[in-house]
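TL;DR need structure tokens for one chain.
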Amino acid sequence: MLKDLFKTKPKYITVKTEREVVNRDEPVEKKEIPDGLWIKCGRCPQITYIKDLEKNLKVCPKCGFHFRISAKERLKLLIDKDSFKEINANLKTVNILNFPDYESKIKKSQKATELTEGIITGEATIDGIPVVLAIIDFAFIGGSMGSVVGEKLTRAIEYSIEKKLAFVSVSAGGGGARMHEGIFSLMQMAKTSQALNRLAEAGCLYISVLTDPTMGGVFASFASLGDIMIAEPDALIGFAGPRVIQQTIKQTLPEGFQTSQFLLEHGFLDLIVNRKDLKQTISQLVKFHLNGGGMNGQ
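>> reply
TL;DR here they are.
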């Protein structure tokens, strides 16, 4: 009927049931959040705008979960602006054992991290105090310790001895010794440990900062030998992972086993420090050491 064309239409929309939508022939258009704008916390349901997360030093604003950060981000966080002078940047890894695809893994990690190897070493100032730094990047083959990582770390320790400066290492090695280099990688555990022994004999302070994760050969050598042991909250720290240990000993592990909080309670760590307070904490510790145990009013 003609009059039906001029009827007032009801002001509502039709919502199809889930069954109707699923059964229809045409594909369902899904609206997704664009990649690179938002990120979900690794511990709680919080979804945070990435720029806001970066302003908060990549720490979840709701639960305090510390996201992993790169060596370059860590360096920027810890030191005074424009104070870093890199040392031994020209050392590069070679595939001495002709391990299959090792070169391609190195190149892939170099592209992802913009580093030649998985560690940055150099001299910088923290609140005006000169120190020597060594920072491992987990994104470079899992932060594993190959020959060049061990060599750069050893040379940085020797540089500290020469300059009589405090040495600060930041570990983030989930891969331990690098299997692609076999015994040459395992040798770095003894080499770095012995270098730290010489550092102690020279009377230089060694502060070891453990971040998530610090495992395997990295943990079992230089990372666990600090005069002062600091960790970020919730960092996984140990030699073998908890799942491997549980399967080996056939026992249920304590809650929070191998987290930084667990290790602090059991006397392995001296401090757990939030990322925003890390620079100030290291600065105060170095000042305390330089002043012979007294802050001299600072």
